[in-house]
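User: Hello! I'm new to structural biology and keep hearing that structure can be predicted from sequence alone. Could you demonstrate with FAD-binding oxidoreductase? Please show me the input and the output so I can see what each looks like.

Assistant: Of course. The first part below is the input, the amino acid sequence of FAD-binding oxidoreductase. The second part is the output, the predicted structure written as tokens.
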Amino acid sequence: MATKTKTASTAKKAASKKKTVSTSSVKSKTKSADLQLPAPSKVEAWGMNHYSLSPVLFPKTQEEFQEIFSYANRHKLKLAFRGGGCSYGDAATNTKGVVVDISKFNRILEFDSKKGILKAESGVTIKQLWEFGVQKGFWPPVVSGTMFPTLGGALSMNIHGKNNFAVGPIGDHILEFTFLTAEGKILTCTRKKNQDLFYGAISGFGMLGAFLTVTIQLKHIYAGKMRVWPVVSRNLQDMFDYFEREYKNSDYLVGWVDAFASGSSLGRGQIHKANHLEKGEDPDFPANTALEKQNLPSTFLGIVPKAWMWMFMLPFSNKLGMRLVNFAKYISGFLTDNKPYLQGHAEYAFLLDYVPNWKYMYKPGAMIQYQSFLPKENAVEGFSEILRICQKRGIVTWLAVFKKHKPDPFLLTHALDGYSMAMDFPMTSGNKKRLWELAGELDEIVLKYGGKFYFAKDSTLRPEIVQRAFSKKNLETFHALKKKYDPKGILETDLYRRIMGIW
Ligand SMILES: Cc1cc2nc3c(=O)[nH]c(=O)nc-3n(C[C@H](O)[C@H](O)[C@H](O)COP(=O)(O)OP(=O)(O)OC[C@H]3O[C@@H](n4cnc5c(N)ncnc54)[C@H](O)[C@@H]3O)c2cc1C
């Protein structure tokens, strides 16, 4: 029988929640007038390339969000939300104000086990979602390459998965959300009700108000594993042709690109295509959805704790080392070429989480990601030009990922009918200037080919590039919504100030 239940832990946790705004170091009193801000602490971008020193508040209830908003309106305080802090750049830092960390507002509230409809607070992470759903035969419809983003962060950026070409971004699977506008009103938003906010807040990078609860449609699965095909591609054209040939028969497609290869091998790499199994195809279902079978192993080869693994990558964290790693990965791809295997959902989806803190291999420097999106017709030519320019400038991405996308109806969405390439670059005090110049050069190539950018991954975009990349009409609508729902302008992040030119 279908159950639309309040989840088991909800009532207990709710009872234990106190009506105080919790701060990182100082407890505030219940009245917002008395809200005391804690001492600033370091709030860092995921790529470690930027930070702010900001007081951090941790609201646990809707009332606490409202108190913070009311306080900010009265005291002309700038607020920035932060979910899992998984945006690569300055999307969730606030040099000029307070950070509102939503990670403690994280209860799953209701679940309809027949329809797979789940309602949760916006601080619930993708990890919580899949761990809750998988044993009941449901998987989140869209996940990022890491499981630590929250629903709030995912909706704000309208994240995409390796299945973007097939199912669209996360926004396409949201049935309803409740939203606290900067003025303190709670509105219910659906495709029909408060439509402007539904399409604007999803993709609105936290600038219109706070997602409170989110109702999402999960995907039914009939197996604990998926069938995965690893396929070598000899250059970018080869990879593109495979995607175009296979996408109609694929649930997920992702390409890894060896950005060091040149000439006729430019853009060579390996594709991983994955398909869900049909009902009855997995004899071990549902036993193999048990969390201990789905969760990523805590050791590598059964011996080395995964938490240490990034240290083994240190000897390779230089240009020569990365050239070797990329070469070795490409060559080893031939051993498994076109030999399908079964792989657990989490293993396939969250490959990057295999090595916790892998970003530390960039220390003592940091990293940025540059992800651009090009229309299908220009993808091979444009991304080839991008790879060539990087090589020419002597700044080659250590990790490049290729994905296919489709357009969606959200206001400031990054997706289009085409492809994206996400490129990780090391950032040091020595190369920062050259890296930013390179990014500027790449921006022009992206614009020349009619492309777009993604704020969740960005660290370098300038206002004039944003104005040229996004439609004038959509940017005007966004600014009108900002005026309507945040008239006093209390919501600002470092990203917002940078890309809107109001620093
Ligand atoms: C290793 C790695 C892999 C990734 N892979 C992908 C991928 O495959 N696809 C993809 O699309 N992205 C990917 N990302 C990016 C990531 O999914 C996005 O940056 C996402 O927005 C992070 O969510 P978060 O909860 O960490 O939010 P944060 O990074 O903390 O914040 C993101 C934005 O959301 C806003 N926000 C947070 N909570 C709320 C709220 N309750 N109400 C309103 N606004 C809010 C913040 O103000 C900010 O603007 C990846 C990131 C990493 C580190």
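User: So the tokens describe the shape?

Assistant: Right, they're a compact way of writing down the 3D structure. Reading them back into a model, for example: Residues 8-32 have pLDDT under 50 and may be disordered.
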